[in-house]
Amino acid sequence: MGLKNFAYALFIASAFVAWPILGKWSGAGGAWTSNVVIVASLITSVVFTYRQMAEEALPSWTAFVVLAVAGLINGLAVLMYSNRTATADAQTTIFMAVVMTLMVVLTPIANRLLNNEQITLTQGLGFVLIVGGVILLTVKDFAAVAATLR
């Protein structure tokens, strides 16, 4: 990954981290946070891509339906994410870390299944370490759980 792509990734990660934390800080509530963020995201996307969309061919009906269904599911996920991070008693940091870590875990699996992208040995090792990290983040008393496995 080059420096330019790293800078893009850092910006995107910062934005994805910022809005749920700001939603909780603002006290707006999960529904308001998710809807304001989704509408503002739509406006930003249209403003910055309308020329590109005009130049590109329309997607096939199959592609449009698949993307629309993915968008509906994503909208529900954003609402759930917002509701789980916006409440005062939410463990926002742990929840966000688990969600983002699971995204890292699911990405190579989905990409392998849908796009036939190969998973390297290094990526496989990283996958195993990440799964271990998710377990450590989500289990309150890991030692007690480990003891029950004996």
Topology:
Blueprint (H helix, E strand, L loop, with lengths): L2 H24 L3 H26 L5 H26 L5 H24 L5 H18 L3 H8 L1
Inertia-based shape: globular
Profile the largest sheet. Answer: none
Quaternary state of the chains:
single chain
> Spans of 5+ residues with little confidence (pLDDT < 50)?
none
Strand content: under 5%
Could you spell the SSE succession in H and E letters?
HHHHHH
Domain module tally? 2
Structural class computed from helices and strand pairing: mainly alpha
Straight-line distance between termini: 42 Å
Mean pLDDT across residues = 87
Count of discrete alpha- or pi-helical segments spanning 4 or more residues: 6
Count of individual beta strands: 0
Amount of helix: over 70%
Based on CA atoms alone, the radius of gyration comes out at 19 Å
